[in-house]
Amino acid sequence: MSAEKRNALGKGLSALLNDSASVMPNKNNNTGGQLSESSALGSIGEVKLSEIEVNPFQPRTEFDEQALSDLAASIKLQGLIQPITVRRINAHKYQLISGERRLRASKLAGLVQIPAYIRTANDQQMLEMALIENIQREDLNAIEVALSFQRMIDELKLKQEELGGRVSKNRSTVTNYLRLLKLPPTIQISLRDGEISMGHAKALLSVDNPATQLYIHQKIVKEGLSVRKVEELVREIQYAPEKKEGKQPEQLPYRIQKVQDDLASKFSTKVKVKVNAQGNGSIEIPFLSEDDLGRILEMLDW
Q1: Keywords for this entry (predicted)?
Q2: How do the domains of the chain map onto residue ranges?
Q3: Which of 48, 77, 112, 286 gives 20 to 30 Å between its CA and that of 203?
């Protein structure tokens, strides 16, 4: 990648997302604050919700329904305090750059139009801004961060050092997140759902055998092991296997384990496959709510 291209991409948020305190609303007396076709790009104006389409590059897939309801209630009382950011597609169509939670909550609150910053951005800049904005969120889980990092590497053609500079992380931090994607899908889902921590996952990454990773993960979930306990268990298994306490459960054949991991990845939940000596078995697909059950049934074309 040339220096000129890197510099252009590096502008990212700084060039395309001005500080909110330095931008004043561009009001139009004829439209009640709504943007006219001749409104200057880079201004703030009221944009109809019906004219905003979601960001196709949005890396975030999980939105807490209760948190959205709480935000919607706040917006009903006080209005939307922080504008969303969009890019103009044409006179009556905009594409969201950042602020999908605010957009969703505004729809729940029944708003017809909301304040928005209007920016210019091509597809590559859209992807970069969406990824960086999400990475900087405090509530983003480790797997979402890792997937965002991987997308930036794959789609923006960045090296790890360049990526670290773009998101203000050192290379070792970037590497640690990317390594999470090497864990079995079942463990990735557990990390995403908060059953285990980043510390647990890092300890599991020091184990080469996926079957052993899954065995230790099972103990973490069942026994509530601390990160320190997991690190001790890993050392015990790696360096003194003859002394490890307890008997490891029989591992699934590789083919069945792969089926279980593939199903877990497909349904985004911890699928459990059981097989007995006669070859009979069952598949368990847990769900968290009626909505989650509906999602799974829809995937099964039920």
Answers
A1: Chromosome partition, DNA-binding
A2: 11-122, 141-181, 184-243, 254-299
A3: 286
| Interval 117-140: pLDDT, tens | 888 777 677 777 777 766 666 567
CB 272 within 8 A of CB 218: no
**Which residues, listed in sequence order, are joined to residue 152 by a DSSP beta bridge?**
none
CA–CA distance, 175 with 153 (Å, rounded to integer): 12
Q: CB–CB of 265/185 below 8 Å?
A: yes
* Torsion sign across C-alpha atoms 290, 294, 297, 302: positive
Among 143, 130, 74, which Cα is nearest to 99's? Answer: 130
Q: How far apart are CA 278 and CA 159, in angstroms?
A: 50
Gap between the Cα atoms of 258 and 301, Å rounded = 23
Q: Which of the listed CATH numbers 3.40.630.10, 1.10.10.2830, 3.40.50.2300, 3.40.190.10 matches domain 184-243?
A: 1.10.10.2830
Residues recognised as catalytic: 100
Residue with tokens 């706040």: 74
Which residue, among 82, 83, 72, 53, has the nearest Cα to 111 in the 3D structure?
Answer: 72
84-109 tens-digit pLDDT: 888 888 778 888 888 888 999 999 99
The answer to whether the beta carbons of residues 124 and 156 sit under 8 Å apart is: yes
Sign of CA dihedral 189, 194, 196, 198: positive
Angle between helix 210-223 and helix 227-239 axes, rounded to 10 deg: 140
Written as one letter, the residue type at 10 is G
First to last CA, the chain: 48
Do residues 115 and 45 make contact, with C-beta atoms less than 8 angstroms apart?
yes
CATH code for the domain defined by 11-122: 3.90.1530.30
CB contact at 8 A, 181 and 153: no
Helix 160-167 vs helix 171-179: angle between axes, to the nearest 10 degrees? 110
Q: Facing residues of 46 across strands? A: 34, 115
d(CA 228, CA 28): 60
